[in-house]
Protein 1
Amino acid sequence: MSVTSARPPLIERWREHLPFEEGDPVVSLCEGATPLLPAPVLSERVGAEVWMKCEGANPTGSFKDRGMTCAVSAALREGAQAIICASTGNTAASAAAYASRAGIRCAVIIPDGKIATGKLAQILAHGARVVSVAGNFDRGLELVRELVERHPISLVNSVNEFRVEGQKTGAFELLEELGRLDLLCIPVGNAGNITAYWRGFSEMGATPRLFGFQAEGAAPLVAGHIFEHPETVASAIRIGNPARGAEALDAVEQSQGAIRAVSDTQILAAYRLLASREGMFCEPASAAAVAGLLEYGADGAERVVCVMTGRGLKDPDTALDHNEGAVIPCEPQMAAIEAAVLG
Ligand code: AN7
């Protein structure tokens, strides 16, 4: 029996702009078409119309699914039996999910002890092989690039063109919904996403400014040199040598934008503000874009979009460690409940 879903897979929705023909295999979890939410509190603070593109609403909880549906569909078309990636967590979670859907094997290389708990849970649940290297993401990526030269395994990091192709649909959706925007604020790690948004805007003839934000302890594109030991609370963007760094710098230059750094303190302040005032529970890396907007301002832009790249549930440990709320213990009696609730 053939079952089809009401919402088309991303590849079908944007087929004329993507390198897939009718009849090619499509591996989809119903990605894309994510909510675009107004941000009244941010709008008030920066004096512009600010929107949040809720990429955490994708099937695996991050923006990576847009590119992964394309990378895994293309791998299947090429007859691949296995895929691999190095990852700070979200790429791996997405790869593991799409591989399970496609019925192919998946291995992921993660930096030792440095990926968020929710992401690790996802990867293991989907049955991928998890290899933890004593080193950071950048070393992991070097190793997988070499590994795929030696073995017939398809690399699904964003150095894979299909990832960027799928990812650019985020820009298409923004233009479809808003018609025009002046400024895009986006976190930058390996620099695939900012590269893809610029490609998407360019293909549609749009030229918003791009403001990319890195964490201060992992800011190679701001400092102009590789970070050997990147560090930040935003583990997703703990990357010292971005694979698409040169393209990202090109994109910001062409768009008359910039890549700037925000501190972990600023990231966590934005993270708490989003969750407590905008109803937006994102992961710390996503909050970096908002921290940057709050710190540097909209610079005259009227309409701003912040890309909320991943869901807060990805990283429960940071949520528990960095919020003021506490659990109040209570006896199961009315007087105690009254005191606890109203007190
Ligand atoms: C939530 O999963 O690099 O600049 O290996 O998970 O395209 O790398 C994740 C990156 C922003 C940065 N926000 O995007 C990985 C990985 C979140 C992320 C980024 C990531 P890129």
Protein 2
Amino acid sequence: MKIHECQAKELFRRFDIPVPEGLEAGSVDEAREAARKLSVGRIVVKAQIHAGGRGKGGGVKVVEGADAAAAAAEGMLGKPLITHQTGPEGQIVRRLLVEAASPIKQEIYVGLTVDRALGRPVLMVSPSGGMDIEEVADKTPELIFKEAVDPRFGLLPFQGRNLARKLGFGPALQRSAITIFSNVYKLFLALDASLVEINPLVITQDDQLLVLDAKINFDDNALYRHKDIKELEDPFEVDPLELEASKFGLNYIRLDGNIGAMVNGAGLAMATMDLIKQAGAEPANFLDVGGGANAETIGQGFRIILSDERVKAILINIFGGILRLDVLAKGVVEAANTVKVEVPIIVRLEGTNVEEGRRILAGSGLTFEVAKDLKEAADKVAALVRN
Ligand code: GDP
Ligand code: MN
């Protein structure tokens, strides 16, 4: 799960990581009021969307005074902001962060994530902060410095010092950096984050370290023990179909292709996606309806796939173990009666009550094709979208 910069900065405050003074605003008047309250000359108005690259896209404006802050807010609110991470349609700006602007001497990159190859959290820093870290990694990888953390000991002070020295920091900055790095690690661990990124961490004109941009991603599987964080989720930033699916406990992830797939069991769903790709087509989604799915959840899953207008053909691949296939068939038929089905459906069913399931589908008036095995199902569905 992702959160907004202003929310991440609130969490940083809790962990004593230095962030500028700032206030949230949802309207032009609120932005003017926030700028007044901050009572500083220079103000930065920042669009709160989950995508990065806002600066280049016009979503970060440094201005003088409350009226200019209001004008900047007017220019952003309610309009789509397009960055290299949003896609061409952009993301509508609904919230702003109005902050005291900071005079910058240098921009540093700081990131903490789990390195899957090492199986450990890795703290990364670079003196080339402020820009796209992927670009730095690509063109000047020697400017990224890393320390892997042994989870038994946590991030040790000497590791923080190593990184601070590589950034060229003198003794005073080293001390502040070590504290910041250690607090970033504490936050990462305590909140079950999967990524903490500060880009940039700046050295101000008076030689203080300050977090100017903050990003935290959370491990969805740990959110059950962080109810307060789950509440930070912004529904406007979540794919509407994914949001809908989560209401029914369906494991649904939107992908880029045009074959809708409904499968039970995450492993079978992955295998189905592989076979669709091998057959030369692309899945539009991952959908695991789960082992204990009933007619209603099946129906909701099918309805969600049908409401995705990119879907050109549907593959239903169910292995009936706990889930009985007559139940599945009823769910599919009920859903098909409420939504217009305009795309071809390929079905591969195997397992408990398969005969009954096939009979229900055959008598439903729905047109679909039955495949004898998974390979044939994938080939058939891929052929349908090719034509
Ligand atoms: P991003 O483009 O979405 O990553 O947004 P950032 O919050 O990182 O802002 C982009 C850039 O705007 C930063 O790299 C800074 O160069 C600049 N910026 C952000 N806040 C301030 C500020 O308080 N003062 C100044 N002078 N520049 C800022
Ligand atoms: Mn940034």
